[in-house]
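Pyridoxal phosphate homeostasis protein
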Amino acid sequence: MGRREELQVNLHRVKARIDETVHRCSRPEGSVTLLPVTKFHPVEDVEILYDLGVRAAGENREQEARAKAEQLPDMDFHMIGQIQSKKANSIARWAAAVHSIDSEKIALALNRGVALAVQRNDRTNPILPSFIQLSLDGDPNRGGTPLEQVTALAETIEEATHLRFDGLMCVPPLGWDPETAFSQARGILSGLEEHFDRSLEFSAGMSGDLVEAIKHGSTIVRVGTEILGNRPLA
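Tokens:
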């Protein structure tokens, strides 16, 4: 089986699993978006996914994502990895969305970065869809915003000229039951929806726990290995 056929089969299988779960949870058809995670995989794989109808992919590392975005300008790349403030200007040039804002410092740096990118004609869209990465256990080593700081950070993003608060991203803490994690995160998101008086996105669920995430309201699942296979050896 060639690489194109392999990715096509994998993509179809994951989409079928998502559709089955959505149906079983009595959610509307099309209510969950699949975001393939292409980190560490070559740009040729992303090209194949684009040919197969994929229009957005998730990336973790700024330099790798930037290179892919330059080679594939028609593909939307979402930043889903931890962000260093010194990389914010670069991320603001290529990111179609950012899922991993975890501090006011990062939010404001991205806001300035988008303004600069637009000014320099490096970016056409003056608004960057922005998600807060939620930390349910408060572990600073894994990134994420502690629960007690989420609303204040959401308001900072909402007030930023070039950012739009779109929702939360959640990764279950190590050792946690995914059901518990996603249920808690969904509760936080519901509070934010009430606070801002609008529906928000919920970026939650990967290959191993997308069923649990969809059950608790995920609208975006981030799947890497199940579609692209194991990471290529360096």
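The longest strand covers residues 128-135.
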